[in-house]
Amino acid sequence: MVVHNSPPFSATGYVGGSLLVSLVQKYPLTKITALVRNPEDLDAVSAVGPTVHVVLGSHTDREVIIRAVSDAELVVQISYSDDLELVKAIVVGLKLHKEKTGKRALYFHATGTMTYAGEASGELRKDYEVWDDRDKNRLRKKVDINAPHRRIDLEAIRAHDQNVADVYVICPPVVYGLGTGPVRRINGQITHAVRIFLEMNHAVYVGKGTNIWSHIHIRDLIQAILTIIDHAIRTQNDTPEGDQTAERDGFDNFYFTSAGEHTWGSVIEEIARTMFQRGLLKCPSLESVSEEYNRILSWNVGSNCRVRSARLEALGWRPKETSIIDNIEECVEASLQLIKSDRVLNFWLGDY
């Protein structure tokens, strides 16, 4: 199947921009509608390829989003994982698409694993269970409705359950490495750490720093998303369009995208060493802070968040890139450039 029209939101973002470049390479004849907020970025995004159609607007421009989605066979939402109104507008567009064409569109909804993090005050807790994306019952029933991203994710999944669209939820943990997008090549927790350490003139970690998070290199993540898109296109017709009685469960299409794990203490130690060598910190040593102080920093590196990508691996995907520790130096350098440009966005909002 050829995807004739696909709008990836946040084409200027860290993950969104990298995905845009890869989509153009993989589907060179496909018209891709890209939403761009800043007029200064229009030329850079347009230059990605002749099939890229740029629309100026933001995630709050409801009518622009509804119109773009209603015309699309495939939709990728990879900008704001905490914007319920954005997802509601996308669902309206998906309903209009089905009304006009009689067919369900494919909708790829990006979120984040913070939903599944367990508070630990900087320690590895033995009672924290690793999340597996094959455990649908736990994913659906064992998560607090007030957890980060949760209400937004359920809104997207509900569109699948109600036969509005074929929805796939993509849930990455910490993303690291240099992206390939036209505007932003880095962002996220490492960039946020660099900014905090610059302001404080020293590095901090939470508790003992033994708490664990899953992670994935940006290039492995892009290949994971492309693998899921390929799978969705191949299997789209498994449930007949007219069969309203067929049972649908959006958690059948839920994918963690993890390639490995790190302790936050080890990552922060490497960030501090790299920054000290560049003369950016007064010393390379680390200071332990409380979970409460961590919340003040809006940093969120005191928890455990461990996930397994069983569904993705069943599709044949395997990570290929080097570890997060091996990438710290180039991530710090790219983060410094981004901070100097004053274009660092709040990763907590999921603006990848």
How many separate helices?
A: 12
The biggest beta sheet is recorded as: 4 strands, parallel
As a percent range, the share of helical residues equals: 25-40%
**What is the radius of gyration?**
20 Å
Strand content: 15-25%
Distance between the termini: 28 Å
Organism: Rhizoctonia solani
Protein name: NAD-dependent epimerase/dehydratase domain-containing protein
GO molecular function: aldehyde dehydrogenase (NAD+) activity
GO cellular component, one term: cytoplasm
Which properties best describe this structure?
single chain; 352 residues; alpha/beta; Rossmann fold; four-stranded parallel sheet; 14 strands; 37% helix
Q: How would you describe this protein?
A:
The structure is a single chain. The protein has twelve helices and 14 strands. The chain is α/β, with parallel strands linked by helices and 352 residues long. It has one domain: NAD(P)-binding Rossmann-like Domain (Rossmann fold). The strands form five sheets. A four-stranded parallel sheet has the order 4-5-7-11, with helices on both faces. The two termini are 28 Å apart. One of its GO terms (cellular component) is cytoplasm. One of its GO terms (molecular function) is aldehyde dehydrogenase (NAD+) activity. It comes from Rhizoctonia solani.
